[in-house]
Design goal:
With 564 residues, the protein is an alpha/beta fold. The protein has 18 helices and 13 strands. The strands form three sheets. Strands 7-6-5-8-9-10 form a six-stranded mixed sheet, sandwiched between helices. The protein is globular and about 80 Å long. It starts with 22 loop residues before the first helix and ends in a 5-residue tail after the last strand. The N terminus is likely disordered.
């Protein structure tokens, strides 16, 4: 398999995992003769089930109860999953403790139910209250989403400028503008969904330039779509600025009467006036407008925790505050079959049989060319954290016999340049490790330059993000949204390499993060009670689960467990 294989390869064999539903859910009439045949067939299956399981361990069969109840079959090619695949598959919960719902067309999105076989069990299970609120949000998305009569009326009112009555349909909308790199967009989607959940709005995501959203992600909500319709009636909504009369900074102290929508600019460089929306009580102002247009290139969730209006609800949703993105991303962000095929093929070819998998994500902000000081920093960090073994300096002893079983470590490296990968791979090829561990180094692609909304580029990037999430330990680069998504999606607390200054490797080279949560960059950290933007809330913050980021202590905040 080529390490730069294209995302246009054939999809995974559809027989590897599928879900079939019994005829009562499919709306098909079952005759008496057919029912009798099914009963005889069911008895035969029950009698031979133990034999099937004993002779074909990779196949997981989940049988429903009595005839007529929903019967769900899940078949997985878990045989090729190495050490993890040899776990007892009956302990794998494909619905993640109720986070996901059954009933999706699994052939159309294999990753939704299949990814559990490549991951460790969830370290932060969803709370019962979150599960309840997710089912309510799904019902709202179906009732008010595109293709429904309430959406048609809302779109017509947006187009005509008709004033909205509070009780009209009970449907409000949050439209997320897609822009910047893929990591930024994934962080924005997860936190925009949280904002929609808190404010009772339908989330609609801009498809992006080139209509890339459907190429990357499956639909997260059953029976509806989260993609903004192509005929959305608001012209040039991507070009809105803070100077627009509908901008929150211009309407927050006035009235929204007569406005078709309100524009929220929560970009990392947004003005303090716009950022005051983090302190907004949506029940007093924004609930009176049906459409909210949100521009964000970052993870806004930590800032929502500073608003007293949301704190009680957020505590019920997430008793463990260091799990917000981890849980929401597992619910919301499922790669399409083309991308999932890239993930599983690479994993099975290079990572699955290793005793341990280490991810190293490299992001350089000083240009696209490789730097020696960055390589030195990577090696110093992996040495400091005991993540990679040292090599013998010269004249290694005789290699062991091939029958000797040495511990193995697979290193997954991601970055725009292949130079760092080539040097580390060369080091472990030319020299033996001091402890005899066998190290293999792999890099799926090296695009040389970052591109935005380029289909193939984004597909490879998303595949690499998911591959990083399947490792056991991970090293990421400071300020990198790509790396923070990879570790948070996998529930991994990363080692964060500090940003080099003056082309010099920092000392220390890295630090262990306080949590797996991404950092929210940009803007002042002010108190919502006084709304004084000159006072840094973290200087007296009573919320110990909101802290300054390790790699950006001056204008970044992140969520963590209060006991850390």
């Amino acid at each position: 398999m080529s390490s730069t294989e294209s995302g246009t390869e054939a999809r995974d064999d559809p027989s590897c995992l599928e879900i079939e539903e019994a005829s009562p859910l499919m709306g098909k009439k079952v005759t008496n003769k057919a029912a009798a045949d099914l009963r005889r067939w069911s008895s035969t299956v029950n009698a031979t089930l133990v034999i099937v399981i004993m002779t074909m361990p990779p196949i997981l069969i989940l049988l429903g109860g009595r005839l007529g109840a929903a019967t769900v079959w899940i078949r997985s090619t878990a045989a090729g999953l190495g050490t993890r695949g040899r776990q007892d598959l009956s302990k794998k919960d494909v619905l993640l403790g109720g986070l996901l719902v059954p009933g999706f067309d699994e052939q159309a999105c294999a990753s939704r139910y299949q990814s559990v076989y490549y991951r460790k069990n969830m370290t932060r299970p969803p709370s019962p209250y979150l599960i309840k609120r997710l089912r309510e949000q799904e019902a709202l998305q179906r009732r008010c989403g595109p293709g429904t009569e309430p959406y048609r009326r809302a779109a017509e009112r947006l187009k005509s400028g008709q004033e909205v009555i509070d009780s009209t349909d009970g449907c409000g909308y949050l439209v997320l503008i897609s822009y910047r790199g893929l990591g930024n967009r994934m962080l924005a989607m997860a936190s925009a969904f949280l904002y929609a959940l808190l404010t009772g709005r339908v989330l609609l995501v801009d498809r992006g330039n080139g209509n890339t959203l459907p190429e990357l992600f499956c639909e997260p909500f059953p029976g509806t779509t989260w993609a903004l319709p192509l005929d959305f009636p608001l012209d040039k909504f991507r070009e809105l600025t803070e100077e627009a009369p509908e901008s929150y900074g211009n309407v927050r102290s006035g009235s929204v009467s007569g406005l078709r929508f309100v524009y929220l600019n929560l970009d990392h460089a947004a003005s303090p006036a716009s950022l005051l929306v983090y302190c907004d009580d949506h029940r007093q102002l924004l609930h009176r407008v049906q459409w909210v247009i949100l521009r964000s290139d970052q993870y806004i969730a930590p800032r929502l925790f500073l608003n007293p209006v949301y704190q009680e609800e957020l505590h019920q949703l997430f008793p463990r505050k260091d799990s917000v993105f981890y849980i929401l991303s597992r619910y919301l962000l499922h790669p399409t079959n083309d991308i999932w095929g890239m993930v599983t093929r690479f994993y099975q070819s290079y990572l699955q049989n290793a005793d341990e998998r280490l991810g190293i994500q490299i992001r350089v902000f000083d240009g696209d060319k490789p730097f020696q000081h960055v390589l030195d920093q990577i090696l110093a960090c992996t040495s400091q954290g005991h993540l990679l073994p040292a090599v013998v300096s010269a004249g290694g002893g005789a290699p062991p016999l091939p029958t000797a079983r040495a511990r193995s470590k697979a290193v997954l490296m991601t970055g725009l340049s292949s130079w760092y990968h080539d040097n580390i791979r060369e080091m472990y090829w030319q020299s033996a490790t001091v402890d005899g561990e066998v190290v293999s180094v792999h890099q799926p692609s090296h695009e040389e330059h970052q591109l935005w909304f380029h289909g193939k580029h984004d597909m490879k990037a998303l595949a690499e993000i998911y591959l990083l999430s399947l490792t056991d330990k991970i090293v990421t680069s400071a300020w990198s949204t790509f790396g923070s998504v990879g570790c948070s999606l996998g529930g991994l607390t990363p080692y964060i390499m500090f940003k080099p200054e003056n082309l010099t490797a920092p000392n220390p080279p890295c630090t262990r993060a306080m949590s797996m949560e991404p950092c929210s960059f940009g803007g002042p950290r002010f108190d919502c009670k006084t709304k004084d933007i000159s006072k840094d809330v973290l200087q007296w913050n009573p919320l110990h689960h909101v802290r300054a980021c390790e790699d950006n202590i001056f204008w970044g905040i992140k969520l963590t467990d209060a006991t850390v």
